[in-house]
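hey can u check if this looks right to u? its 447 residues, i copy pasted from the old doc so theres a chance i mangled smth
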Amino acid sequence: MGNLAGEAENGGLRLDFDGQLRLEFRGAKVTTDAGLLAVRELDEALGLTEMAGAMIQEGRTGRNIRHELTGLLRQSVYARLAGYEDAGDQELLLRDPAMRAVIGKKTLERNAASYQTVSRFETETLATDENLAALSVINHAWVGKAMCATKAKKIILDMDSSESPVHGRQEGSASGGHFCSRCYHPLFVFNQYGDCEGAHLRPGNVHSADGWRDLLEPIVDRYKALGRKLYFRADAAFASPDLYEYLEEEGILYAVRIKANARLEEHIEHLMTRPVGRPSTKPKVHYHGFSYRAGSWDRSRRVIAKIEWHQGELFPRVGFIVTNLSRVAKNVVRFYNQRGRCENHIKEGKYALAWTRLSCSRFISNQVRLALFVLAYNLGNFLRRFALPSEVSHWSLRSVQLKLIKIGARIVCHARRTVFQMAEVAVPGELFAEVLVRIRSLAAAPT
């Protein structure tokens, strides 16, 4: 212990396995999140948090307010994108140079907001009906900015629900029979580029489709105002006449899976006989389209059936899709099957950002947390979509987080500038430079 103490006094700790190595702890001079500087550059290029800060209503009345709402929002969102999913983690970032640099101009001269300040911002300032609604508007505005930069002529919307397990008795949580756990049951909508168009937090015991219209309608209205062609996909949990009628009234093309029943199976009876001959290793697939009207429907609709015969299986695998698409049956099925990307986006939110971490006792506070996680997810997805060079464009959000955002750097301060000396491991300097070039070209383009 004497040697260790002596080493500490001299500015380093000795390692027994190699006497030439020394450890120094200089928290204010190094960071593990230097990639947040690229995130901040993208944020500035699109004007995201600057715009968002103006939409949040100030709830603080004291005279000694040190941190602006825009900076607090950046700190809350950026921390989540960097993998700090809980407000308590903000204490680790108090003196972190990267966080201090990105929350506002010339903020390296002072610390980031403390855990207590960020916690009050999230659980008090944002946890009002007005600011909770503002967070939804902010997300719509962010995705709108990204889609303007994308210049997509058609928008494909995928809706799905998910499980957010809880480990206590949080307000609004419940034991969902389908998930076999005490949880929340949030509802999500994504577009074909992976942007989260919106999310609603719901109790754990509601039906998967509960509240679909409240979430979907504002998104549809926004795109209709822009004159975009809309498509919609969802699984059998969302199969209901109300949904079909709404989509048809709005002129939205859709493909929604429906559960099998005896009447549907009558239409494919001629395809239910096992193919003659030795089964092939490759499945034999048949498609069949027909008109069908369920008892609860106000009209007949087109249904596509897919019948798959697999080697070693006695009965075929059968699925039905209700649609108003006019394309051939096989292409309708292909279009619907791409809905699986939505499930992957939800998994990325879970595993890269831990957006299932909804640990506040009040339901509205957890609504705020989910909204902040969605903003962080979208900011990361924008970085992936617009800034990554082609050779790394396949990176998942988790890879973006670990390889690009979690870059170590040493900070050197000069009289007129501060230098971040970046570690070249997963991301070399040339690649990072190309990321910045792409972001700057995005800032120069009209949106």
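Residues 166 and 359 are 7 Å apart (CA to CA).
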